[in-house]
Amino acid sequence: MVQQNSSMNIGEIKQQLAKKTVEFRTGGFKPGDAATESWIGNVYLYKEAEEIPLNSEGDVMYPLLQLHVASLPYIPEALKNTAVITVFVGYDEPIDSHTPQGDGWVLREYTAADQLVVKRWVHPEPLFKTYPLKPGNAEDDFPVWDDPAFPSAIITAIETLEEKEEISNYYDAVNLHYHHKLGGYPSFQQAHNGFDEGFEFMFQIAPDDKAGWPIEDDNNLYFTKNAQTGEWKVYAEYD
């Protein structure tokens, strides 16, 4: 619960806002155990009977992300039973909150009970370069100023601290994580409408020059989950 007090100091504000996140570094290290790795531009963990998904037109989709959730130092509550997440996208297809799974994107979620096997499948016309993702430590993350879920009471408290010159500005007082990450807050690049009721932010895929993602627009993708129904929705920067 947000403290209704405009005289909060920055330490109290950070304590109320902080959410744990794990941010990933793209490449720059030698891959280790294939069974527990996360990747950008590469998916090789599947159920025995699974293949690369096809989009609604019957075209083979592109492997974009593999997250080995179970091996990370922090896991959101809604993913406590999740072991692996994989994401595939279509070529030049819209991906936003109006796009159902299978049209422009596919997310597969596995538990520890799922028997996964390694399939070294390569797309005949690859779009992305493949890199292992190095997870960092579990660290505090904070919302961007334009986050529609930013509590108004804390905004008032921060503005009071700025007026008193106790802090220069919000962004100098907190540490935000902008790259690929699991947990924490969405790193909205502009004013955003937020997420549908019941859907909670789980992870984001950020622009990645090394991997060549995205193809055109330099926007984040925000993946959200409804913990009650298990449904996933993806939101784009322009949603």
Automatic annotation (TrEMBL):
Highest taxon above the source species: Bacteria
SUPFAM superfamilies listed in its UniProt record: Hypothetical protein YwqG (SSF103032)
Provenance organism: Deminuibacter soli
Pfam families reported for this sequence: DUF1963
InterPro entries the record matches: DUF1963, YwqG-like_sf
Descriptive protein name: DUF1963 domain-containing protein
